[in-house]
Amino acid sequence: MMTQQGRVLEILLSGHFICRVSDEEAFLYLQHENHLNQIEQQLNILNRTLSSAADGEVFYASYLTLHDKERTILERQFKEISSNLLPLVEWLLLIQESSAQDTPLTQGAAIRLNEIQSTIEDTPAFLEQLSKISAYPLFGSLSKTADGQLKQIFKRLTELGYLVKPNSEKQIYIATGKIEYLYEVLRFIDETEALSLTEQAAAAMQQGVLL
Amino acid sequence: MKQNITQSGQKILRALGRHSELIMQAYIEGTVDESQHSPQVLENLQQLGLLWRPDAESDLRLRRVVRAILEAGLSDERNRQVDANIASALSKLYTLVAHYKEACDKHKFIEAEAHLADLTELTYAMIDTLKQGVRGLWSRIHKEFGYVASIDAKIRENQLAQQQVTDLLTQLEMFEFDKLAQEAGSNRDLRRLLVVTLQSNFSLVAQELSLVQARLIELLGRFREFQGKTRLLKGFILHLEQKPNYQPAQYTRHRQVPNLFNLASDLLKPAAINVNQTEHEAELSEIVARIKAIQHLHKPKPIMPAQVVVVEDNETLELTDNKIKKAVEAYFCHIIDTGERISALDYHLQHNLEFDTEAWLYQVIGGFEALSASDKAYFSVEKSLRDHPLYSGNKIIEDVQLWFR
User: Fold this and answer.
1) Range of weakest confidence among A161-175, B90-104, B140-154
2) For residue B157, is pLDDT > 70?
């Protein structure tokens, strides 16, 4: 029998994120300071440290000290993150626009695939957008139908840890804390590079540019 | 007088009932389609004050009061008006109090009673309006302004609601309870109405309103967060549209890598099997048992040559009771051949038949009954019967005599 501590350690060392949605028990375990310290000590042995993002909504392991080997890994990962940004952002906007309420996807929000699918299938603009998104290497769908494209996208996102599917028989997905991490990455890039993305969007919306 | 009011009131209600379809149509569509209804009916409804024409060129519309009844009854979301003109209600209240006190002083009790009734009505109406306003606000909060689609519209709706709460609170500030208490003086009825009823409801409403305000601010915060996130996403797309070659800076090459991009690689790989671990023996053997034979690794079997189909006759079925039937036939033939009268049991004895005597007798009787009527006529039959020892009316067949006529 593995202890909760061992389980949490295993998730972190496997390179996964821990959030309220993906693993509530592990998440609650990390809310105690004692547990945090224990995990931190064990991670330190392996040159890792516990990090959190999005106001403490997600935990993950990061390197304690960076040498050439770690830097190479980080650079590779960053390349992946930055090339995945556009497909993910386009997907997020598609989900937001095709869902009944115009709210951005946040941690814990449910997506009913059937509802999304019927809205998308009824709207040519969404269909076009969907086939564009599904063709990105991140999703790599070869399907010609909206059904196949959507299934492939959702399958990949579940594999990548952005979504969880609580009931394998129902087509309902729940967004995890990794979505919040994604927003934070965008916000970070926006602030550090002074891109003023929000202001651009607001100005464009006022001018009536349809996005 | 009272009779008159009742009658005209009923007339209005009857008109509402009789033309409910027209009124609901006007409620839903906003205006009445005059071509569909007779001018007489429309004229009548206008006279009763249910419909009105804002100006000569516009269509007929429902009067505000009728609309308000329906909105309240249907809990319609379109009713987002918070109506609280406390100031005018309060000055009316003071006027009525003055009327009442004057009447009391002059010992005109009937008049005083009428004033008090008006006063009661006014107070309750005031409380009702306030509560209605709070209720309306709550229902909008519970639906999270779901009746408008976009986040921006929700934010505007939220701001409207907040404005209404502020208005309600300033209205509530107009209540001066010392002044009301002073006005009421030592009059029991007035005190009950102006001090007790009003004050308890006042504090209730004020309490609710502060809760409403807190919830509204919380919701606004959430909406703003949503708005921020949406703008972030849209801004990013927009930015990439303007600068298609945009690449985020290489943060990982910085001396100090931002923690956000410092993601450790996965370290753990699945563990291997240890076959020497005796505790795992049962599970391991189960896993081995579950391993499926991989079909395509086996040599494919040669395809079997087609077989020649030989059609054979069906075998004739032999019935087990054939023997006894044949014996019965032999018995009948014996009688025909010899012409003697012989009992079935005697025949059984003579030929040493192997069947049970009872079965034999049964078969003989059955064989006889099975003969066709013309064949039956050649034989005579006689059963030797005995009464059943216990059950009267039942007979036991002991033997059968058969002879040829």
Assistant:
1) B140-154
2) yes
What average pLDDT does the segment A36-52 reach? 90
Query: Is the separation of the CB atoms in B253 and A70 below 8 Å?
Result: no
Is the minimum CB–CB distance between A189 and chain B shorter than 8 Å?
yes
CA distance B160 to B314: 94
Determine, for residues B267 and A14 on separate chains, whether the beta-carbon distance falls below 8 Å: yes
* Fold annotation for B77-245: Glutathione S-transferase Yfyf (Class Pi); Chain A, domain 2 (1.20.1050)
Q: How far is A82 from chain B (nearest CA, A)?
A: 7
Which CATH entry fits the domain spanning A4-63: 3.80.10, 1.10.10, 3.90.1010, 1.10.3470? 1.10.10
Lowest mean pLDDT segment, chosen from A30-34, A82-86, B73-77, B137-141: B73-77
Mean of the per-residue pLDDT values for chain B?
82
Query: Stretch A87-96: mean pLDDT, rounded?
Result: 90
B234 and A199 in contact by Cβ < 8 A?
Answer: no
Cβ-based neighbour number of residue B203 at 10 Å: 11
Query: Is B253 within 8 Å of chain A by CB?
Result: yes
Domain ranges (residues) in chain B: 1-76, 77-245, 323-404
| pLDDT for res A174 | 93
pLDDT at B248: 82
Q: Answer whether A13 sits within 8 Å of B247, measured CB to CB.
A: no
Q: Which two tokens stand for residue B174?
A: 């107009």
pTM for this model (two decimals): 0.62
Give residue B70's pLDDT band: very low, low, confident or very high (50, 70, 90). Answer: confident
Residues 151-180 of A with CB under 8 A from B: none
| B234–A82 CB contact, under 8 Å | no
Q: B386: which strand partners?
A: B396
Residue A82 contacts B, CB cutoff 8 Å: yes
Q: Write down the domain spans for chain A.
A: 4-63, 74-206
pLDDT of residue A173: 92
Q: How far is CA B342 from the centre of its chain?
A: 85
| Residue of chain B whose alpha carbon sits nearest to that of A87 | B237
What is the nearest CA distance from B258 to chain A, expressed in angstroms? 9
User: pLDDT at residue B2 above 80?
Assistant: no
SS3 B175: coil
Give this complex's ipTM.
Answer: 0.86
By Cβ distance, the residue of B146, B258, B263 closest to A60 is: B263
In SS3 terms, chain A reads as CCCHHHHHHHHHHCCCCEECCCCHHHHHHCCCHHHHHHHHHHHHHCCEEEEEECCCCEEEEEECCCCHHHHHHHHHHHHHHHHHHHHHHHHHHHHHHHCCCCCCCCCCCEEEHHHHHHHHHHCHHHHHHHHHHHCCCCCCCCCCCHHHHHHHHHHHHHHHCCEECCCCCCCEEEECHHHHHHHHHHHHHHHHCCCCHHHHHHHHHHCCCCC
pLDDT band at A88 (very low <50, low <70, confident <90, very high): very high
**Nearest CA to CA, how far is B152 from chain A (Å)?**
10
pLDDT bucket at A164, cuts 50 / 70 / 90: very high
- Cβ-defined contact of A103 to B226 (cutoff 8 Å): yes
